[in-house]
Amino acid sequence: MLFLNKFVLLFTALHVFISDASPTPAAKSKPTVLVVCGAWHQPIHYTLFTALLEAAGYPVVIQANPSLNSSTPKTASTTNDANFVRNSLLLPLIAQGKEVLVVMHSYGGIVGAAAAYGLSKTELKTTKGYTGGGVVGLIHLTTFLTPNGASLLSQLPGQMYPSWQYVDNSTGQITPLTPKQIFYADVPPPLDQWAINALKLQSKDSFDTPSGPPAWAEPAFDGRRAYIHCLQDQAIVIQGQDAFVAASGVKWTVTSLNSSHTAFLSEPIKLTAMVISLLAGFTPS
Question: CA torsion, points 89, 93, 94, 97, in degrees to nearest 10?
């Protein structure tokens, strides 16, 4: 019954959205959307959102970060995650001549920003004379924004793990203790419990290892970077989201959803429409 209800919700969302979003046969090829997952979350959590993007004609690529549910969590790192996204997902798409929009969630903002560094379509065209694909925009959904060399842990108050995270130093894994409150406060049942059941362990070292230089800091992404605030977020509270944007030192297109940390579950239609609208407003590459 739980899975049946989930797919009924998915079908309903698609039915509402597809009539306005379906591409015409003559439409220009649309960018591929690369979704970079947040901590503890796996690609299946983003199904409502990615299915709506695909229904609107946008190819989607999404894979779990290596630090998720790792069999060797003590060898995981932010850099390993970023290298995986860059080498296994982004570069092959660019080599195929694809334009790529990178959409990142939570911890995925650190990973995706490092992975996309130096890969903007504008920069590839200018510095390497490359006329094929490249990254055409960055959208951060309630993400961390870490400068080069900083870790996620270094961005937390007091550089301490919050009380809702259980850190098992013996295994090197972190577990969220109150996911309903922190992640899914506005996600309706039974979808909320399904999402909780689908959570996986997260490597501690992915939180306390340094990140690489972020793509959002590059001038090539001026006019092509956006931050979506989630106003009811309890994982990265709105004050923290505001602080990240303010401290970044670059100009963002900023918008918001009145949602919890997981707008892709509680507001998938609004989120999809917002992402498409932001992409349309980006400076052409």
Answer: 180
**pLDDT single digits (tens) 119-157:** 999 999 887 777 779 999 999 999 999 999 999 999 999
The overall longest dimension of the chain from CA atoms, in Å, is 57
Cα distances (Å, whole numbers) of residue 91 to 82, 148, 222, 232? 12, 21, 21, 35
User: CA-to-CA distance for 256 and 179, rounded, in angstroms?
Assistant: 22
d(CA 117, CA 150): 15
CA-CA distance, 28 to 285, in Å (whole number)?
A: 15
- The alpha-helical segments, DSSP class H, found in the chain are 2-21, 47-55, 78-84, 91-95, 108-115, 121-128, 179-182, 191-198, 205-208, 238-248, 263-266, 268-281
Which band of pLDDT confidence, cut at 50, 70 and 90, is reported for residue 27?
Answer: low
Running DSSP on this structure, what letter comes out for residue 9?
H
SS3 state at 51: helix
Give the type of residue at 76.
A
Q: How far is CA 35 from the centre of its chain?
A: 5
Q: What is the pLDDT of residues 225-242, one digit of tens each?
A: 999 999 999 999 999 999
Main-chain dihedrals φ then ψ at residue 37, nearest 5 degrees:
-70, 155
